[in-house]
UniProtKB/TrEMBL annotation, chains A, B:
Pfam families: BcrAD_BadFG. PANTHER family: N-ACETYL-D-GLUCOSAMINE KINASE. It comes from the Bacteria. Residues 13-272 form the ATPase BadF/BadG/BcrA/BcrD type domain. It comes from Arthrobacter crusticola. This is ATPase. InterPro entries: ATPase_BadF (IPR002731), ATPase_NBD (IPR043129), Euk-type_GlcNAc_Kinase (IPR052519). SUPFAM superfamilies: Actin-like ATPase domain.
Length: 339, 339
């Protein structure tokens, strides 16, 4: 890094999920909310799990552009917040090594996106964040001893109330209508035909694609439109989803945490019925609940985590982070730190 | 085919699904119930759909062994009954051509396995068959004008009440218990841990495999064991499955068909609760219902269809079969017959 000492060092935050990637770099003069955001494609998970080379190819131009836009000459800390990191990342060491080699960051941090969402939404205060988009997951933590991750098991095993969950139920109701089974919705069938072609066309395409959860979630706007027009099946799906997300948040609110819940993710804007049911269910269970939308994004959370790490005050300094594997920190001089 | 005229001509029946393949050959002296059955692996559906080459590699030794065991010198007719044929087979012509080239059959028939199940279960009588294993599908037909196929949309879009459906709900309940969400079952969680390792292990494996429906369905014996030991969640899953399968059968019993329903597939033996609820739900809806397990297997159905085709009396001679695309017949001399 010959140029490393000649300009301000930056903090790079990366937020990457199944459908997209967002990158920004902050410096002492540009903060998380003013840094320019660069966007790219999402994570591809192949038969061998996360493709590290593919990830690096996605990140390289975005990180370079974000660093140039910030005026930083080098990167002090790079935080990668990724969906499904805990379960799909088989080789954290190689990702640390690649990030260090390609971007020259002094410290690299790999974090579950639910942790960066939590930090962004709650400004590092203790409480619960529930994040819902294509998937759904909650984290309740005080950044010290309490670490309760709930759901986030993917569209086949959980993600209750998520976009994929809603889309799958909407499509099931469309197929029930097509078949003449009870529980169908003719309105949802019309929307399936419009979006995907014939029922057979959708079958042919969905089972041969890798991004099946995203295909399912792509039906959410149709379910929302049907609900807005009074379709009882669609309304019921959104209300059930709101209840499921409330239950996920409740399970993350373990004893010892203040009753503070923040929601983040586009799904909460998909339908007023979902949000209403979500709030009602939560207030039914908790008398004095502090419930609000998250303050900042998960990208802002990644940048905050990076800044705290650079200052040596990041939560990775505390026992909880390392012991619960919500993120891993790598420094080339201290390979033993990576866990 | 130099040897074609020197021995009796056989009828080859093939029944192939996601988890296995069964092949038998009949001759004028060995009927469908006495022919020796040869078994192999199931269909692999890759990113490009059905892999024809892979299918042929699976079939080649099985068909040769079945033909040799039967004493047939050549094959008159070959019937391939396959799961998801209608929706996943992109190139019927090439399958016909390959089957003809490799096995020398005069006539090749590609049929949906729900049709061969129907013929086997009902001995070609009009009525409804509902087939449940890893997937679930029903067909109501009189082999003439009425053709009502219901469900069979796969584990992401339907297959309500199937093995994959039951397994997914059982696993969801296990993850709910692990998370501390409502609706969980500690008993099912214990069984998940025993069969799949940690909850993260299952996530890692299921989303990187092609045979996800089979992985889900592999949990059915565990759900059945839990139900037998009184687990209310597991019992509820089997009862819901029974109701779903009854609704699928009901939707296939269109006006004009006699109220005759046959069930086939291993799932109906997985739990007495499923079968009881299935029967109760059907009898609630239909006063004078003729409800019984199927008489013969789908392999026997494929052999019956082959024999009828060879005699020129097969249902493919009738308008209904060709127009509804429940099977395709190919003859090298009459390429126009394939539709």
């Amino acid at each position: 890094m010959p140029a490393a000492e000649r300009g301000p060092a930056g903090i790079c935050g990366i937020d990457i999920g199944g459908t997209g990637c967002r990158v920004a770099v902050t410096t002492p003069t540009t903060g998380p909310s003013t840094a320019r955001v660069f966007t790219g494609s999402g994570l591809r998970i192949g038969g061998a799990g996360l493709d590290v080379e593919d990830l690096m190819l996605t990140l390289e131009p975005l990180v370079a552009a974000a660093r140039d836009a910030s005026g930083a000459r080098s990167l002090d800390t790079l935080v990668l917040g990724a969906a499904s990191l805990v379960t799909l990342l088989r080789n954290a060491e190689s990702v640390h090594a690649e990030l260090h080699a390609r971007f020259g960051a002094h410290t690299t941090v790999l974090a579950s996106d639910v942790l960066t969402s939590h930090i962004g939404a709650l400004s590092a205060q203790p409480g619960v964040v529930v994040a819902a988009g294509t998937g759904a997951v909650a984290l309740g933590t005080d950044h010290a001893n309490l670490w309760q991750r709930v759901d986030g098991w993917g569209h086949l095993l959980g993600d209750a109330g998520s976009g994929a969950w809603i889309g799958a139920r909407g499509l099931e109701a469309a197929y029930r209508s097509y078949d003449g089974r009870v529980g169908g919705s003719a309105g949802l069938l019309d929307r399936l035909l419009e979006r995907f072609g014939t029922p057979e066309d959708l079958v042919r395409s969905v089972y041969t694609r890798q991004d099946r959860a995203a295909v399912l979630a792509s039906f959410v706007p149709d379910v929302a439109e049907a609900a807005a027009q009074g379709c009882a099946v669609a309304l019921g799906i959104f209300r059930s989803a709101g209840r499921e997300l409330a239950r996920t948040a409740t399970a993350a609110l373990v004893d010892g945490l203040p009753p503070r819940i923040r929601w983040v993710g586009g799904l909460f804007e998909a339908s007023p019925d979902l949000l209403e049911e979500f709030g009602q269910e939560l207030h039914r269970g908790h008398v004095s609940l502090d419930l609000a939308p998250g303050e900042g994004t998960s990208l802002e959370g990644a940048l905050q985590l990076g800044a705290a790490t650079a200052l040596g005050s990041g939560p990775e300094q505390r026992e909880g982070f390392l012991s619960t594997q919500h993120h891993w920190t790598g420094r080339p001089q201290q390979p033993g730190r990576s866990a």
